[in-house]
Amino acid sequence: EKLMNGTIVPATPEPLSPACSHRLWPEIENTVMEQVAMAKLGVGECGAGWQLFAEDGEMKMYRREEEMNGLVVDPLKAVHVVKGITGYELCHYFFSPQYRYDWETTLEHMVVVETISEDTIVFQQTHKRIWPASQRDAVFWSHMRKLSDDQDTEGPGLWAVVNKSTELPNYPANAGKCVRVYLTVCLLCQTLVNPPKNGGPVTREDISCKITYCSVVNPGGWAPASVLRAVYKREYPKFLKRFTAYVINQTKDKPITF
Ligand code: 18C
Predict the structure, then answer these.
(1) ipTM, 2 decimals?
(2) Ligand 1: distance of its center to the CA of 195 in Å?
């Protein structure tokens, strides 16, 4: 850029996200890149040991049995294809605090701790207690972003939400009755459009969304492995079915948002 006095200054790059000056930004950036790259890999490509543990129509859920210091931390990877909704819509309802109680059945209480920007929020959540373990809570940042799709730069692209545990002095871990869990979650959504043959406008009949949901939750403290794995097996399919049905229902009479 050339100033009035003739000095040449480098053009300021467009801000990537309104959150990019925040202290958490480097971690958010790195985590999003890493999680999206992992989510894009098929279960065959990202190492051995993935076992299918739940299947329902297009939905498939895999897990890898893993332990860390004696705690079950099984990574989960789910894929699903849902008709009639876009990747943006799924990410919007997953990210936005105002809908969370509608679909998150394990939730007891949610607090927005910090709104860093329109696309980046820090949450504190308390989840329902499972007998005989202690109740769990989580503090995590959540970031929503559009990604450029290598195959289809003109298309609706890819949207993702990444959630990752963080520490906050005002919300110390294990201070009250809750044990703090540590989570890394990625929801990656790709909209697929079937252009209508008559050349007419695209309707909800013509769209579908390919979903990949990856999650690793460290329970943070003692929890019986058998109970924990049973909770996994029940709660993850329940979550993905309920959440996608919720988004279909919320959007069915609304204009399509890409
Ligand atoms: O990704 C999801 N939701 C997001 C928005 O809420 C966000 C939250 C993740 C929650 C992480 C799990 C927190 C602990 C939950 C305790 C279990 C409660 C079950 C209550 C049943 C009545 O990313 C969707 C998340 C879908 C949740 C699936 C359940 C995950 C189970 C993980 C278990 C780890 C701790 C277990 C504690 C003791 C168990 C004996």
Answers:
(1) 0.97
(2) 38
